[in-house]
Each structure stands twice: as C-alpha cells, then as structure tokens.
Design brief:
- By secondary structure, the chain is of the alpha+beta class.
- It has 9 helices and 12 strands.
- The strands form 3 sheets. The protein has a 5-stranded antiparallel beta sheet. It has a 5-stranded mixed beta sheet with strand order 7-9-10-12-11.
- α3 runs parallel beside α4, α6 packs parallel to α7 and α7 packs antiparallel against α8.
- The two termini are 36 Å apart.
- The relative contact order is 0.07.
C-alpha cells in the first residue's frame, strides 16, 4: 500500500467513519433524552390536571386546558387530553372537536392507585404519539381515566435535523481530511523520494552530493540530517581511503624501486662476493622497511575496525609500562623520559591497542627530540576524561598542521628523510576514536617541541557507547 493510500485510509476514511459512528450513537442518546423529557412533561401535566379535575361547579369533571387563556398559543405543541368516565366513555377532550378513533373512544379506568402507564402508539397518518394514562377518583369515589397524548413528530423532526447536520459535518470533515491527507501524503512522498534517490546514488558509490535540503524539524527532517552526516562521513572515508592507497603505493614504490635497482646492477655484470653481499644487505634493509610498512598498514586497518576486547583496567599502570618499555631506546638516543602519573585511573580500554598507541606517541617524541633533551609523560584527569600527554623538546608542529599530522603518510617539512612509515599518529587517532576519545596536538603555545594528547573517557559506559 502506498503512502498516499495509507494516509487516505488512516487519516481520512477511518476518522470519518469513526465520526459517523460517534454521531449516530449521539443521535440515539439525543432521541432518548428528548423522549424522556417529553415523558416528564406529560407526567407533570397529568399531575396538574388530575389534581384539579373536580374543582369546577358542582364538582363536575373537566379539563383545565380547554379554558386556558393561552389556548391558541399552545395549541400547536400542547398535548391532547382525554377524560374517560367510570363506564369508559369519553366525557371531555382537548382540543375541542378533536377526532378520536373508535378504538380510542372508550377507555375503562384501571384499579385505584395503579401507577401511570406510558406507551407509544402510531396514528393513522404514521405519526408516533407518546401517551400517559392516570387513573383518578372523583370526590364521590367514581373512577376516571385521564389520558394525555403528545406527538413525537417534533422529536423525530429534531433528530432528523440532527442526522442531516451530522451527516453533512461527517462528509465535510471527511472531504477536508481527504484533501489535507492528500496534500500531506504528496509532500511526504516528495521528501522520501528525494532521500530514496540519494540512497541510490550512495549505493552506486556517488558520495559527492548531500541530500536535498529539508527545513522541516520532524522525524523525516532528522532522518535527512543523519543521512547527510552519514554521507559526509562516507565521503571523508572514501577520500581518506584514496589518500591511504595513494600514500601506500608511494611508500611501497620507493623500497621496491631500490630493490629492483640493486638487483639490476647485480645482474648487469659479474660481481664479487663482497659486492653481492652489499647489494643483498641493501635489499634486506628495504625488505625490512616493507615489512614495517605492511605491519603498520595492518595495525591501521585493525584500529579502524576496533575489534578489541575492552576491559576495565588501570590506565596509569598501562602508561607506566609503556614508559618503562621505551627507556632503553631513550637511553640509547641520549634522552631522558620523566613520567608524572596519578593514582590508579580506572577506565574501559583494550590494553593491546592502547599500549600500541602510547608506544607510537613515545616513539614519535624520541624520533624528533634532540640528544640530551627530556620527554615528559603525564596522565591527568580533566572533568570526566583522562589525558595521556606526551611532550618533547623537538622542532615542534606548526599550528596549521595540528590536524594533518594524524593523516596517513603525512610528513612535516624537513622530515621527509626521517625513518618511519608515516602511520604512527594515524594509528593513535584511530585507537583513541574507537575508544570514544580523540587524539590531538595540544594548542597551548610552546617555546620548543610539541605535546601530543590521547584523551579517553573516564566513564566506561560512555566509552563503550561511543566506541560502538
């Protein structure tokens, strides 16, 4: 079922039918209430008439309605009155000259003290009448029967008018709902069709366009915003993937070219054992370089997937182990590592990947620190987060490159020939983000060196939620 038909059904037809049912039920209650009001009016009139039937001259039975000064004014809606004597014969009527059916011309009074009788009858012309009969006693003890009969035509007319108005309102409401729902359905269909076309472009690999603008703030507008964000992330991931592939191809080409050159030189003419050994050693160094690059690419892929075993642990202890593991290399380079670690810092993390990230930051700091300088490692708490801050006294990182240093294969000016694959900080960023945190270069101005920060959530629930 299409969206338009569904809105027609649920937004127009069903409400209109529900309104018809409700108005029909209300009409039945309306009729019931009018008829009960008529019954009360007849009983009240009968009570007045029965109490004054014999207050005339010589105690003769009579109906007061026949001598009322408002006789002409009330004639159109006043009830008809009949008074039957002890033998059942009709002794008085209202209005005067009223034609009475033969079957109704006699009515034998009932037993003394009988309750009033309310009945509905249909006249020869098809009009319904509501009738009450009250049995009374004359001062001499003779039984009389008082009947008052009121037409239900006015009630039927009022209910009929109600039905016509109700039907008109129901049809009008149904048509109005149909128009509104048709307009709404077409509007929603256009919005959903725009997102459908965008999703088809995404399926075909086209991330270059954002979804059509949608100013509405409803659920579909929120869905469009999420879709736009997902598209932007996919475009960024595609661009990052392309940069990674291009960078990897470039990094792989250099050692492979050197290896091929060494082999070509060795094969061009006869070489001595020593020359062949040198060529093989050069090829071996390039193979080692390729192995390191391949390992780093694999680490980056694993970091992007984030398929780790996160457990509650002491972050301070992990950082201390990383510092101890780096001391031997630092001493070989003539560097000093000073650690300032806080008390046990409980957090949810994957020990293997996070240790690799801290090792990468330390390795990066040692690579660019001058001999005899100091590297500081601090674990601090900021609000609900932990920060692993590693600072060095190297050449520093220009402010314009604080973000780009975390891109794969990015190298700062003047560091092109520095050993390394250019993937270390990229792995650090991926690990931090998969833990629900981030990695960045501290923006505070420094006279020398740079400070790289790994920030992780302190709340394990927050970290797990963002990582997923």
């Amino acid at each position: 079922m299409t969206l338009t038909r569904r809105l027609w059904l649920l937004g127009a037809l069903v409400p209109a039918l529900a309104m018809v049912v409700a108005l029909g039920s209300a009409a039945r209650l309306f009729r019931y209430d009018l008829e009960r009001s008529l019954d009360r009016a007849l009983l009240a009139q009968a009570a007045v008439e029965s109490a004054s039937l014999f207050d005339g001259p010589e105690r003769k039975a009579h109906l007061h309605m026949t001598v009322s000064p408002l006789l002409e004014q009330v004639r159109p809606f006043a009830p008809h009155g009949y008074l039957h004597g002890p033998d059942g014969a009709l002794v008085a009527r209202y209005p005067p000259g009223l034609q009475v059916e033969e079957s109704e011309s006699r009515r034998v009074p009932g037993a003394p003290g009988a309750p009033p009788q309310l009945v509905t009858r249909v006249g020869p012309d098809g009009v319904r009448w509501r009738e009450v009969q009250v049995d009374v006693r004359s001062p001499q003890g003779a039984p009389y029967a008082l009947r008052l009969s009121a037409s239900l035509g006015q009630v039927d007319g009022s209910v009929g008018t109600y039905h016509r108005l109700a039907l008109f309102l129901a049809v009008s409401l149904g048509l109005a709902l149909l128009v509104v729902q048709t307009w709404q359905a077409r509007k929603l269909a256009r919005r959903l069709a725009a997102m459908t076309r965008h999703l088809r472009r995404l399926r075909e690999g086209d991330f270059s366009h954002a979804p059509v603008e949608d100013p509405a703030r409803d659920e579909i507008g929120q869905l469009r915003a999420v879709l736009a964000e997902a598209t932007e992330r996919l475009r960024g991931a595609r661009e990052a993937q392309e940069r990674l592939i291009a960078g990897a191809a470039h990094e792989l080409r250099t050692p492979l070219t050197l290896m091929r050159t060494s082999m070509d030189l060795a094969l061009r003419r006869e070489r001595s054992r020593e020359e062949l050994r040198v060529g093989l050693e050069e090829a071996r160094r390039e193979v080692d370089r390729l192995a390191v690059l391949a390992g780093n690419l694999l680490d980056l892929a694993v970091a992007g997937r984030g398929a780790w075993d996160r457990k509650q642990g002491d972050l301070s202890r992990l950082v201390a182990q990383a510092v101890e593991g780096a001391r031997a290399e630092a001493e070989r380079r003539g560097l000093l590592i000073r650690a300032e670690l806080s008390a046990p810092a409980q957090a949810l993390f994957d020990a293997g990947s996070l240790r690799q990230a801290v090792d990468n930051v330390l390795s990066n700091a040692m690579k660019f620190s001058p001999e005899g300088s100091e590297i500081q490692v601090r674990l601090v708490r900021e609000a609900e987060r932990y920060q692993v801050r590693v600072s060095d006294a190297g050449p520093g990182i220009p402010l314009a490159e604080h973000q780009s240093v975390f891109e794969p294969f990015h190298r700062l000016a003047g560091t092109v020939h520095t050993p390394g694959s250019g993937l270390g900080l990229s792995i650090v960023r991926e690990v931090a983000e998969q833990h629900g945190g981030r990695a960045y270069v501290a923006p505070e101005p420094r006279r020398f060196g740079a400070e790289v920060v790994i920030e992780l959530p302190r709340d394990s629930a927050e970290g797990l939620g963002r990582a997923r």
